[in-house]
Amino acid sequence: MPKLYRLEGDQIVEGDDPFVALADDVPPPALLSPASAVILSFARFQREGDGILAQGVRVGVRLEPDERVEGLAYDLPRLALVALAFPKFRDGRAYSAASLLRERYKFAGEVRAVGDVLRDQALLMLRCGFDAFEPADGATVGEWSQALHRFRNVYQAAADRRVPAFAERAPAGLGRVG
Amino acid sequence: MYRYDAIDAAIVADRAAEFRGQVARRLSGELSEDQFKPLRLMNGLYLQLHAYMLRVAIPYGTLSADQLRRLALIARRFDKGFGHFTTRTNIQFNWIRLGDAPDILDSLAEVGLHAIQTSGNCIRNTTADPYAGATAEEIDDPRVWSEAIRQWSTLHPEFTYLPRKFKIAVTGAAKDRTAARVHDIGLKLRRSRDGELGFEVMVGGGMGRTPYLGQTIREHLPARHLLSYLTAILRTYNRLGRRDNIYKARIKILVASLGAEAFGREVEAEWAELDQAAIDLPDIELARIRAAFNDIAFEDLPPVSAALNAAKAADLSLARFVRNNVAAHKVPGYGIVNISLKTPGDVPGDCTADQMDAIAALADTYGFGEIRVTHAQNLVLPHVKLDDVPAVHAGLQQIGLAAANIDLASDIIACPGLDFCALANARAIPIAQAIAARFAEPAMAERVGELKIKISGCINACGHHHVGHIGILGVDKKGEEFYQLTLGGSGAEDASLGEVLGPALPADRVAPSVDTLVDVYLRERTPGERFLDTYRRVGLTAFRSAVYAEAL
After folding, report:
1. Is the pLDDT of residue B85 over 80?
2. The domain containing residue B52 runs over which residues?
3. Which of B36, B126, B161 best probes binding to A when mutated, by most A CB atoms within 10 angstroms?
4. Which residues of B touch A174 (CB under 8 A)?
5. What is the number of structural domains in chain A?
6. What single string gives the DSSP state of each residue in A31-81?
């Protein structure tokens, strides 16, 4: 089972992953137990999502960078998780996808980073609204937590709701909190 | 000028500490070069032909005297005693050891300098008018908005891994000294008919192998919405820009393929959905930034300096310096003094540590401790009393930086070329030196007048050859260095891309051909016409036939 790092409070903890990623070519188990949790590709979710959800199973969808989050807009309330893929860590499209999920669609479920997920990008991911990570590096939860706290201040309002510098500077009552 | 407060300083210090850790992980082998590369690039560290190169950011080209002295110290202690000012208004040190980089960044952080986002596929340093806050031409001070952009773009979580690098220019004056039309985003301050301050927003300009001029997607964006509108542009680009081909990944390609109108519609739709109030700076923060730039106590002086006029009459070289290097200031009795880093024979943009220290001292004594860097690789003392210009000129003469050639033929932009750069096809610096030598006689250069010559050692166009009145591009022909000439480009408010003159020329034909082009211009020009104006009026043919008739 791949490692799963999750954000709890302001720390990263390692936990068991209740979700099983169902590959497109694996037939669905005839009867999923209501306790199961699966991650489907966007294409498979469109084909089979309704049926699987009807079994009371928790469902997550994995979006590749070229699959737009707008395509999930109506289904988000039924989803427990959206996994956003980083085929390479340099491919930054998932940052926009996560920001949209949190800020525009107010998605409250888990937003998970999958693929080439490294601690050097952990803070960016956290700020854009990711709260779970399948790490591709060998770094420990301690090192991941450290990476999240590397900066005492931030300049921008983002999905993590940290107070941006311009609001910190404003006299009390005049600042806006992201 | 804006000085870092505790929050700005903490962000820079935290970044330096982060990079120190990453360098340690690289040196220990924990990070592969592939993993380390984007991290070091995001901190301005390139691997060049001979050594690491560190590119230090000079935000919107504004330096304090203390910061310039620190750059001199870095040049002396960690490099070979000089630095190179770039067309991005940054400074590069070409002989850096990887292990020294963390100490250099710590030292820079002490004076509020850093190398954050001077490379990598992120939002780079903003270009602003080097005459900001000094010229009467400006509608508003572009530094206020450039500082807002600096903060917003620094470690932006969503826009640090864009398809490709991203450059923004802000000009407050109609006369464009930023080359706004060849930036990914060009912002031109303007007022609407009812007086509201806003920006004309141009997108999709750029040079490189497929040059484009930026196209206007909004005539008037209310200034207070700048950051949310930029967010909408960047998000649209981050999502839709190509990532399959590095040469097609810049926003210019996206804008060209969608069409500016359709791209603009995408941006407007995104912007309408954004929580603008959470992104745009509150008025109180804009006021804080603006106040920091209004810190200069100008004296009430007569508009004409009798002392300067007397000195000019006695010293022809001073008179020439004033004619070419000193521009009008918004405050009577002051001038904007340009310092040319293009002394014929020297490397364009290079500055020694001793020269940096001397310029910092001149800035402290005569110029409110402020220095600007221009995209033409020169420096500016933006606020000098006209009475003090003779002393500044004398000080510059002592350090060999009194060349009176701003915007003249020897004020050449050149990239480092094959002498330093791993990407180059051909050398740029020796070509620049050969051309400058032909215009080293000041009277001759002045007679020719404004002539912007720009040289790139490869198609990446760091030397901006596409927008040179005469552009020169180094190409490789079967292992030999050849040079492609273009004519009629401009990066200013009358922006245009140059047209190819004809087949590429061997290195030893370049400077003589520039002579020939200038001869054609001198023959054809009508009174008051610059080289560019004459070219636009008479067309390519006269110039082409003169150069290639001689080549045969």
Report:
1. yes
2. 6-110
3. B161
4. 282, 284
5. 1
6. S--TT-EEEEEHHHHHHHHHHHHHTT-EEEEEE-TTS-GGGGTTTGGG-SE
* Domain CATH number, residue B48: 3.90.480.20
Nearest CA in chain B to A171: B284
The per-residue b/e assignment along B297-315, b for 16 or more CB within 10 angstroms, e otherwise, is eeeeeeeebeebeebbeee
Asked whether A11 and A143 are in contact (CB, 8 A), the reply is: no
Classify strands B505-506 and B480-487 as parallel, antiparallel or unpaired.
antiparallel
Q: How many residues can be counted in chain A?
A: 178
List, as one string, the DSSP characters of B416-450: -GGGT-SS-SS-SHHHHHHHHHHT-SHHHHHHH--
Contact check, Cβ <8 Å, A120/B14: no
B333 and B202 belong to one structural domain? no
Closest residue, chain A, to B237 (C-alpha): A93
Answer with the one of B293, B319, B352 that is the final residue of a domain.
B293
Q: Which of B500, B498, B501, B457 is nearest to B475 (CA)?
A: B457
Which secondary-structure segment (H or E) carries B80? none
Residues in Cβ contact with A118 at an 8 Å cutoff, skipping those fewer than 6 apart: A89, A135, A136, A137, A139, B35
Res. A27 pLDDT band, cuts 50 70 90: confident
ipTM of the prediction greater than 0.90, yes or no: yes
Q: Residue B394 in contact with residue B386, Cβ under 8 Å?
A: no
In a domain, A160, yes or no: no
Which of A156, A162, A169 is the best mutation test for B, with the most CBs of B within 10 A? A156
SS3 B298: coil
* Residues of chain A positioned with their CB less than 8 A from the CB of B155: 124, 151, 154-155
Q: Looking at the partner chain, which of A104, A156, A176 has a beta carbon nearest the beta carbon of B156?
A: A156
Cα separation of B171 and B152, whole Å? 18
Q: Which residues of A touch B (CB under 8 A)?
A: 65, 68, 89-93, 95-96, 99, 103-104, 118, 120-121, 123-125, 127-128, 150-158, 165-171, 174-176, 178
CB A61 within 8 A of CB A82: yes
Element at B369 (helix H, strand E): none
C-alpha of B421 from chain center: 18
In a domain, A15, yes or no: yes
Distance CA B184, CA B123 (A): 10
CB contact under 8 A, A93 and B238: yes
**Which DSSP helix (H) or strand (E) runs through B54?**
strand B52-56
Residue at B150: amino acid letter: R
> Per-residue DSSP letters for B169-227?
EEE-BSS-SS-GGGSSEEEEEEE-TT--EEEEEEE--B-TTS-B--EEEEEEEEGGGHH
Name the most confidently modeled range: A84-93, B25-34, B341-350: A84-93
Same domain, B525 and B447: yes
| Rounded Cα–Cα distance for residues B512 and B505 (Å) | 11
The one-character DSSP state at B508 is H
Whether B339 maps to a domain, the answer reads yes
**Span B111-135, pLDDT tens digits:** 999 999 999 999 999 999 999 999 9
pLDDT in tens, B9-18: 999 999 999 9
Residues of A whose CB is below 8 A from B284: 170-171, 174-175
Helix B353-366, helix B65-78: angle, nearest 10: 170
**Domain co-membership, B354 together with B239:** no
Two tokens at A174?
Answer: 């005049």
- Side chain identity at B156, as an amino acid letter? H
